[in-house]
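Co-fold these.
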Amino acid sequence: MMSEAESAKGDYVLPLVLVVDPTTQVSERVQCLTDVLARLSQEMSSKRVTAEPIIKVIVANSTPQTAAPYLLKPEVDSDLETKPDGFYLGRALSGLVDDVTQEVSRQKMNGKVILKPQLAVIAVSDSGDGWENPLTEVFAAASQYRFGTLHFYYAESVQSRFVNRLGGCLSREQYVLGVVDSGERDSVPRKPVTSPDISTQTAVAMIPRWPSLELKPRRRLREYESRTSELLLVVTDIILAPLRLIESSVSSVMEAFDESVPVEAPEDPPVTKPTSPEPMALSANGNPIIGEASSINKSPWWDSRWWNVGKDEVCREVEVDVGTAADLAIIGLTTRGQSHRYGGLPNQDSFAILHDDLVPGFLFVAVSDGVSNARFSGYASRKLVRCVVRALHSRVLKRIRDSDTPPSGDELHEMGSAAFREASEALLSWNNFEVLAPPGEPDATDPAELSATLTVAIIPVGSSTDGNRHALVGFVGDSPCYILNDETWQLVTPATKSGETLNNATSALPFIGEEGGDVTWLDVPIATGSTFFLMTDGFGTSLSSGRSSVGVFLGAEWGHPRTVVDFLRTAEFDRAGEDDDRTVVAVWVPPFKSPLSIEESAPAITKNI
Amino acid sequence: MTSVKVNDGGQQVLPFYILCDESMSMEGAKLDAVNQGLPKLHQAVASDPIVNDKVRVGVISFSDTAEELVPLTKLTELTQMPGLVSKGGTSYTAAFTVAKSAIDRDVANLKSSGLQVLRPVIFFISDGEPTSPDWPTAHAALTGKSNPYAPHILSFGITGAVGQVIKDVATDITRLGKKFAWLADDGTDPGAVVKEIISKLVTTIVSSGRSQIPALIPPTPPIGVIDLDPV
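Predicted complex below.
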């Protein structure tokens, strides 16, 4: 039991179970283990930690022996029979959940908040019994007191026997691997080439990273004493790293148990969750994670040095427009991609939305994606979208003043293509005060440095168009148009084959010489209650045909108008490899599906601490 | 959630393999340079979050037999890289055979986790004449049309290698219209050349991983190295 002084230190308790392969001869060095654990608890009290570990050591003999049951200052029983007779991981793990449950309940009665137990295993020989099922059970979702993370140290000689099979028991986020040198050598010794010191910041960002540990086999027993400090390091790190994370308020590695579970009845079934979908895991920067988390979001942006303000005067991190145009509801959003955050470059995407009383019947929307190799494509995309919607607007305005009949499809095509050409021309000259303007003179700048795609939509507004609303979509390049209806996506513009290199002459503005100038136009019917989108490939690539995990996520989130804050959160989903600038203009056509009540929709994206 | 059959197309990865000679003739400065270069590769990739998510790296060494020292992996998941040691002869056959089986297994694994895998790239480094005369067969099995996962091979010959052989090992990269085969000049310090080669290799991996449309961005030859297939 902890003394008053110790329990005053914090309200969190971290159970740690260490399962040790007895053939490492750790068990014989009982005295050393006691030293290790004593020094560990000294370290705990000297560090500014707000949680306490309680440690149990299991020596995985054929009859598992407990060396130190759940104490802050564990004493190792020196009478322990420690003759190693093989490594039995399965037996060591069986009954562990019940054991932890008992201990956890006891701790909860002292008013502590229990953090997810951690399991560390050191294996240098093959296990004499089956271990996959006991291990799966320890981490199984059904168990209320399931463990959080497995820290698995193995000797290279048994790598395949454990490591390959771990994937079958646990998901990749649930385990961390490290290599132990068992002392076996092949005929030509390899000197390990260890990784150089990585700075603390990147180390934190690449959590978890464990130092590798060398344990010698029985014939070099005497050297073990010098290894106790390394064992101490390893065990200390296993405990301290999650605690440091708690201190810096980074979620995702540790979760506190649900406090509302009654203490008196550990055998009660776990509280059933509401039928809304499982809360999504969030990255360190608050992004909902779809699939594999990205490395850049494993650390808060202010800690990692991987998120840099623009080398230009603005980085256009997030731009949002929101509002209604007659009967339509619209949100336009562009956010800077991870690769530009890392490189300190500005957002190279842009959008524009235009509707006014002079041309009340039409909504003009444009998106543009700056070609990444083009140095000034950020300037280009922003200028193009603004120029093209204004050029379109002024042409349509003149046309409706000249005649009462509404413009035909053909006339809109012509006006649209002329607007593209006008925007392309406008791109080729600038003055110094324009946002992100290139530093040199227009005459001296290679137009290829201004490359960007452009996709434009002319959408009729007003309830008179209901049931028969057709948008006109014109594009140069690969920024796509989608329709979302009843959580099903339809890609309207042609799909781009992955890996295709764009031919700049025909797939981007500015139009150069006689080539190009060709805008493709599509007639797009928009059903009532559906949603119309223009996007750049920052979304398009992961959305692809719509039958993708991102498609399922966005299909559920974007089917109805949202608050700006909610929309931004869904747009900033985290996914490894998706690091391009992201732009979307969403146009919702009534009747708008009523959003889920606040209680139902909120848990879909809830922080876990 | 509705039950939609998910067909994820978004996440692309670039697999890179370093296929390195550790025959007796590589002993000393050359292997030391490789062993010093590998942690630098690890650092450059593992500390760049954008590149790290997009590339996977593996290391295969060969002498009389070939061995996978580092199975294809995301570099932040690697805690240690075993060093190369010199031993034995120079069996290109073993090198290409093991490379093929590694690629077959690794690409299948990556695909089964829903990733889009781009064509693997092998950096082949050798300093000597191949001691196995039947290596072209193994090479053809690896790079021929019958192998759907046939990799690009960029080959680097250190002092002692046979120029024509190095050129034959490299594959034609159609998109760029040439092969990438380099041979160190006679008289250049082999350790320094290897160091340069490793550093070019790192640049290639990093710039390929950073490019918006993931693709191989091949290196330019360092000083003291001849391009065997100039445009």
